Amino acid sequence: MQLPKHLKQYRLDVGLSQEDLARRIFVTRQTISNWERGKTYPDIQSLLLLSEQLDVTIDELVKGDISIIRERVERDRGTLYRLGAGMLAALLAFTVSMAWLMWQQNHGWGMVQCVPTMVLAVVFGAGAMCCALAAEHIKKKNDLVTYQEISDFLDGKKADSKETRTGWAYEHPQLANAIKFAAAALIGLIVFELVNAAMSHF
After folding, report:
1. Contact 101/117 with Cβ under 8 angstroms?
2. Please, are residues 44 and 87 in contact by the beta-carbon 8 Å criterion?
3. CA–CA distance, 172 with 165 (Å, rounded to integer)
4. If DSSP codes are grouped into helix, strand and coil, which group holds residue 192?
């Protein structure tokens, strides 16, 4: 990414410290430092403010980055789709494994005979959790919303507003994730009951 180098150079060109620039665009000095070290990337609203304060265009700030940004958005979007599909498949397999385990126990299978099914259930459950954690890691690490906003903006599309980006899910990420997990658990329970009911006829 070229923005860290460009940002620092343009900031020095106009004689601003990180603290001065941070105050002018309403962020912390640490935020400016993170941008200049490439740890995080500014959103479109911040880029607009930066371009005003540094007297450069957004194109000049992100020059050399846009193709990387677009490639990253597409690559990570594909990865997130695959992780989502993997999580759903693992949850379904986990649910079927648990239903099969219940069937075994209801039909007098001993604990030793049920161990393989238990192991499968644990593996599938762990697989679903790993997919979910990997997806969250990708979203947080690469800030996909920011990159998509910049790509859309440079294509002349309407970028999401700051209010949209800082909506309820962004303000309460833990609660939003808990609700998603609860919804997934509910769907899993429903599938479990359906599979269990179907197997009870055997």
Report:
1. yes
2. no
3. 12
4. helix
| Cα separation values, 42 from 24, 30, 93, Å | 15, 12, 40
Which two three-digit tokens encode residue 89? Answer: 């498949």
The DSSP symbol for 17 reads -
Check whether 58 has a pLDDT greater than 70: yes
CA 138 to chain CA centroid, Å, is: 5
- The DSSP secondary-structure symbol of 158 reads P
Q: Which two tokens stand for residue 18?
A: 């990180």
pLDDT digits (tens, 9 = 90+) for 164-173: 444 555 566 6
Check: pTM over 0.70? Answer yes or no. Answer: no
CB 47 within 8 A of CB 38: no
Rounded to the nearest angstrom, the gap between the alpha carbon of residue 74 and the centroid of all alpha carbons in its chain is: 13
Distances (CA, A) of 43 to 71, 143, 162: 17, 9, 9
Q: At what angle do helices 44-54 and 144-154 cross, to 10 degrees?
A: 60
Which stretches of 55-172 are DSSP H helices? 58-61, 66-106, 111-142, 144-154, 162-165, 168-171
